[in-house]
Specification:
The chain has 203 residues and is α+β, with helices and mostly antiparallel strands. 27% of the residues lie in helices and 21% in strands. The protein starts with 12 loop residues before the first strand and ends with a helix.
Length: 203
């Protein structure tokens, strides 16, 4: 799944259906309706009282806790970073991915890989530090970004960079090309919630 970041409008629309369901959305948000046997989309602002909105009566999604694939090429370096491996994608893993996709930087260098998170909020930075320690048993390094109040928390590991690339190949790309990892979409709601919370906390 791909997502886009857009400026938040000053006002939102609230639509209430006859069944009591409520939608809070932008005026440009497309909704499906039907007329003369045809189903088509139009913007929320163009709907009038009494018009139909097409909605599913029920969506059944089978989810389960996912396994992390650690089967990547191993580093041949003598001083490579040692790390622990937690096999299941849990709430902590999901939150880490949310931070990295939201405000993170994951890239390969000539002989290693860099994983970093930059933010001005010390609560988020400290949470990122705790997550890295809890998941990998690695201590992050810290540095202030030049001429800003932002700090970067980072660590180096070519193997963990390869693991992250395997989870989500777009994690190595720019923010506009990021995607929600499929492994997150297949996870239970409690894990998906932690990913989304961390991602939107980066805003």
């Amino acid at each position: 799944s791909t997502f886009w970041k857009r400026p938040s409008p000053t006002k939102l629309l609230k639509i209430t259906t006859n069944t009591g369901n409520e939608l809070i959305l932008t005026k440009e948000h497309p909704l499906f309706t039907t007329k003369n046997g045809f189903v088509f989309a139009k913007e929320a602002q163009d709907f009038s009282i009494g018009e139909y909105i097409s909605t599913p009566s029920r969506i059944d999604i089978v989810t389960e806790q996912q396994l992390i694939d650690y089967d990547v090429e191993k580093s041949k370096s003598r001083n490579k970073i040692k790390y622990q491996q937690k096999q299941l994608l849990n709430e902590q893993w999901a939150r880490l991915l949310g931070y990295l996709i939201g405000d993170g930087y994951v890239r390969f260098k000539k002989t290693t890989g860099i994983i970093s998170f930059t933010n001005i909020d010390t609560t988020l930075l400290n949470d990122f530090e705790c997550l890295v320690k809890d998941i990998f048993n690695i201590d992050v390094k810290k540095r202030q970004k030049l001429n800003t109040n932002c700090y970067e928390y980072y660590f180096s590991s070519i193997e963990i960079t390869r693991i992250l690339e395997k989870i989500n190949k777009n994690i190595l790309k720019r923010s506009g090309e990021q995607q929600i990892p499929k492994i997150i979409c297949k996870s239970p709601d409690n894990i998906l919630k932690e990913f989304l919370k961390a991602f939107f906390d980066c805003e």
